[in-house]
Amino acid sequence: MKTMNNGEKGRLYVISGPSGAGKSTLVAQLLKRLDNVYFSVSATTREPRRGERDGKDYIFVSRDKFMEMIDKGELLEYAEYVGNYYGTPAAPCDEMLSRGVDVILDIETQGAAKVMKMRPDAISMFLFPGSFAQLEERLRLRSTDSEEKIRARLAQARIECGRAEMYKYIIINDRVETAADEVEAIITAEKCRTVNRLHYLNGD
Ligand code: ADP
Ligand code: 5GP
Known about the structure:
Radius of gyration: 17 Å
CATH topology of the domain at 12-40 and 102-202: Rossmann fold
Number of helices: 8
Bound molecules: adenosine-5'-diphosphate, guanosine-5'-monophosphate
Structural class: alpha/beta
C-alpha cells in the first residue's frame, strides 16, 4: 500500500448491500486492483466463518469487549445486524485518511446512514446482485449460515434494499469484474471532481 496523494486527505468510500450481494468478494477484487486503499476491518460479535481470519476480515470480539469499545468511544459507528453487533474502529480510518489513503467501509445501511451524516463527503455505493433470486442462490451457495439465518438475512435484505435510494451510486454485481470496473470508474470520476482538482490551477 503506497501513501502518496500530493498532500490531499484520503477519500472515504462506503459500500453497503444485502448479505450475499458480494461485498466481501468485490472488496477483495478492489484491493487487488487499487493502490493507496485501506479496507476498514470491523469489530464484530459474530462467530468467524470458515476461512475468516481475525484482524484481517474482522476483529472478532465478545459482547463485553464490544460494549467496552462503545463506552470508550472507539467506534466511528456501530449497528446490530441479525443478532450480532458490528462496528467500525475510528482510529485506523482517521489515521489512514489523514495520511492521504482512501478508506473502504463495508457496512450495513444503518451504520452507513450515520457515516453519511457525520462525513457528508463520503462516497456511498449500494451493491445489488441483479435480482433477489440471485441473492438467495448466493446465500445458499456460500453455505456459511443455517436455514434460519439465511431466512433472517433475506428478510433483512428487503429492508436494506428499501434504503438504496440514500446512496450516491448503485453497483450491479452480476459479474464481479464488471462490478469492480464500475467502482473503479466512480473512484476515477471522484478524483477528477473540480473540488479535488482546483489545486492544480491554483499552484505555480
Ligand atoms: P457479502 O459480503 O455481500 O455478504 P459475499 O462476498 O460473501 O457477499 O458473496 C456471497 C456469495 O456469492 C459467495 O459465495 C461469493 O463467492 C458469491 N459471489 C459473489 N459475487 C459473485 C458474482 N458476481 N457471481 C457469482 N457469485 C458471486
Ligand atoms: P456479515 O456477517 O455477512 O459479514 O455482515 C453482515 C452485515 O454487517 C453486512 O451488511 C456488513 O456490511 C455489515 N457490517 C460489517 N461490518 C460493519 C460495521 O463495522 N458496521 C456496520 N454498521 N455494519 C457492518
